[in-house]
Amino acid sequence: MVASHQTANRHVAIVGLGAGTLAAYGRSGDHFRFYEIDPAVIRAARDSFDFLRDSAAETSVVAGDGRLALDREPPHSFDIVVLDAFSDDAVPVHLLTRQAFAAYFEHLRPGGLLLVHVTNRYLDLGAEVEALAAASGKAVIRIHSDPDATDRPEPADWAIVAGAPADLAALRPLAAPPSERKVRPWTDEYSSLFPLWK
Asked: Which residue ranges form the domains of the chain, and what is each CATH number?
């Protein structure tokens, strides 16, 4: 999904560092800024993996809560915002609320995309992203990638949110069917995991 965005000199915000693997999608002229709350993860990404060092993009890492740190960035700073913080059992629900979505789009440039990695063994987080997109007046598609023995040993699920349907045109041939689950969009005052249990 990051690779499909063809804008030159992309500015990409990524909430959740992991090993830094998304830096591999960086091209010369790009800037990838990662936000990571866990200092141990930052140390591991820098000391035990090469993705940040080997990226063709310029990379930086900001320590702290991704939503709060992103709020300190100037408006309309990014072409892509990626949320990659939901694969563990503990879901940071404050990253998936109507207020959070409003903040992400405040930091996206026109035509920008919000990419949400919703792969989770227990929860249908894609249904929640669809509900948030609908409540926010945004367009959304889901993309499922099957395992590949040489590239992706596990399946992956993403929800892509855009300000207008035309912004998703290039990705629409990859779209999976939307969820049949109807859930209430989360806010900073309300969230519940129970309707999302698989």
From this structure: 11-196 (3.40.50.150)
